Amino acid sequence: MRTSRIVGVGRYLPERIVTNHDLAQIMDTSDEWIQERTGIRERRFFELGKDTTANMGTRAARMALENAGLTPQDVDFIVFATLSPDYDFPGSGVLVQRELEVPTIGALDIRTQCTGFVYGLSIADQFIKTGMYNTVLVIGSEIHSSGLDMTTRGRGVSVLFGDGAGAAVLQATDEPNRGILSTHLHSEGKYAEELAVIDPGSSRAVPRTQTRMIEEGTIFPVMNGNHVFKHASTRFPEVIKEALAANNQQPTDIDLLIPHQANLRISQMVQKLLGLKSDQVFNNIQRYGNTTAASIPIAMSEAWEQGKIKENDLVCLAAFGSGFTWASALIRW
Ligand code: UT7
Questions:
Q1: Active site annotation includes 290
Q2: Which of 114, 184, 231, 316 is catalytic?
């Protein structure tokens, strides 16, 4: 049966490093608080005039294509996951199509936040399985730093997030038991407002954007941290077990679990609940914070480069976030 394989991975991280100590200069927080609760030591912030959500995604995509021995001209379709697009519309996928200077191929933006990359992978996989496309780019890219409340009011959220981009190239394969074995997608919209940016939403008084929104801070992300933590700790292991069960595999069969980098404590809890060893789980949140849709492909790219993902390895991706949405993918690399 025709399936899809990840044939190349890439990433782009802005150069500017912002440490916890840097944040403590502008809001009431501390390196100790951030590290103890989240594991984060530093994150990257974009450079104005140089980095955009789209062009960071394009750079990650070029690296992924190069690693695959492909050129942009080989790509049949682009899937772009972000919650921080360059424009309100159009989506950033078309900007990547422009920057890659490829023919007029389709470009689809998806917005499932932290699960965006896994949802994107699933979409690409379906297009490949049906035979519609042979080569699909899946990109996750985020610029959070320009949209966070960098005052003490926003500290519960703003210390968590960072900027960056990651990408994967998928190609069709006929090899049995190879590539993306299955993907599992979920949502529970009753918790939509537990982690959200509410304004400027469309169902608002005219004009849609008002000074009040800035004053009240409804243009900034809000999160019921404890609630999100509790659900994440349950949904991560659940959706990983779902992927394993669908393929008759056990946690011990996993060569590498790459969880969405939301909080090191969550990853450690998931590791413990599944009985995994430390070298079975990849984490880099310490250096990049939470980069939402970009976190999994950035981690995948680093893990691959460090030789932690090898041919034939069983790799599991899992994510949870705003929506709530959660998802997993099991891959025979
Ligand atoms: O990727 C999307 C999914 N996101 C997640 O999975 C995140 C899930 N949630 C979390 O990771 C945790 O809930 C946080 C790391 C966000 C927060 O940790 P927490 O242990 O739940 O802290 P808390 O929100 O209960 O706050 C504890 C205290 C509060 O002070 P009081 O009320 O106890 O006096 C906060 O005001 O810590 C205070 N606080 C801070 N202090 C210093 C909140 N943020 C900060 C901060 N620096 N940055």
A1: yes
A2: 114
Cβ neighbours of residue 286 closer than 8 Å, sequence gap 6 or more: 39, 40, 41, 42, 264
> Which amino acid, 282?
F
Q: Does the structure show a pLDDT above 90 at 206?
A: no
Residue 53, helix vs strand vs coil: helix
3-state secondary structure of 94: helix
Could you tell me which residues come within 8 angstroms of residue 137 by beta carbon, excluding any fewer than 6 positions away? 61, 64, 65, 75, 77, 78, 79, 96, 124, 167, 168, 169, 170
pTM as predicted: 0.97
Question: Is residue 247 among the annotated active site residues?
Answer: no
Share of residues in the chain with pLDDT > 70 (%): 100
CA of 63 to the centre of ligand 1 (A): 35
Classified by CATH at the fold level, domain 3-173 comes out as: Peroxisomal Thiolase; Chain A, domain 1 (3.40.47)
Domain boundaries, the chain: 3-173, 179-332
**Pocket flag, ligand 1, residue 33 (CB < 6 Å):** yes
Mean pLDDT for the stretch of residues 68-89: 98
Shortest-distance Cα residue to atom 12 of ligand 1: 225
179-332 matches 3-173 in CATH topology: yes
179-332: CATH class: alpha beta
